[in-house]
Amino acid sequence: MTCAVFAPVGCATAPPLDNPVAVRRAEVENPVLVSPGQPTALSYREVFEKCVEVLDDYFDLNTPNPYEGRITTKPRVAPGYEQFWKAGNPDPRLRLLATFQSTRQTASVEIRAGERGGYLVYVVVDKELEDVPRPSRATIGNAVFQEAPTVDRQVEVVTAETAGNGGWIRTGRDYALEQQILRRIRECR
After folding, report:
1. How would you label 4-33 residue by residue, b for 16+ Cβ within 10 Å and e otherwise?
2. Where are the alpha helices (DSSP H) in 57-106?
3. Looking at the record's lineage, which domain of life comes first (predicted)?
4. Alpha-carbon dihedral of residues 48, 30, 92, 26, nearest 10 degrees?
5. What pTM, to 2 d.p., does this model score?
6. 123: burial class by Cβ within 10 Å (0-12, 13-18, 19+)?
């Protein structure tokens, strides 16, 4: 009897409150105008703290300097589908790529006073792909006997020259993540 009551309903749910008609969101322009009106020290501080708060949800930040008007982040490995709990790329294709290939992202935000008031917030998220000379544990191309020993005993001295960005290829910008960050900054969420 109860099955007959609930059968017509199925899994029908209401649309989400922030997008009740399920219309695709429009692109947010980059840079986005935030806090329109005459720029003041208090409004700049609010915009700067909001940008730090939003970026901190996605990245580990370098020390932010409000006098410079620029916020930079440390590189982070992009989460794939196996790390569903981490905030990451909203594009399913790039999230799938991050599942099977090591990619990392860095972000930078610049805050400038607008010509007609307010502040222009410019967000750039760069993507990099890991480039290894030879994949670890690769046995393709070896004959019957493996030439490499099972324990790798090479000693490598780590200096500033070897600890740079070697091994990463810049593949462009991550526009989907930029849009997500810009949307949150514009909506002050």
Report:
1. eeeeeeeeeeeeeeeeeeeeeeeebebbbe
2. 92-100
3. Bacteria
4. 110
5. 0.70
6. buried
User: Assign residue 136 a region: left if phi > 0, alpha if psi is -120 to 50, beta otherwise?
Assistant: beta
- Residue count of the chain, please give it: 189
Give CA torsion, residues 58, 103, 72, 188, to 10 deg.
Answer: -30
User: From the first residue on, what is the mean pLDDT of each consecutive set of 10 residues in the chain (189 residues)?
Assistant: 52 57 71 82 90 93 90 91 83 87 92 88 93 68 57 64 71 91 84
Rounded to 5°, the CA angle 45-47-51 comes to 115
- Torsion sign over Cα 134, 140, 142, 148: positive
- State how far the Cα of 46 lies from the Cα of 53, in Å rounded to an integer: 10
Distance separating alpha carbons of residues 127 and 171, to the nearest angstrom: 6
- CB atoms inside a 10 Å sphere around CB 53: 13
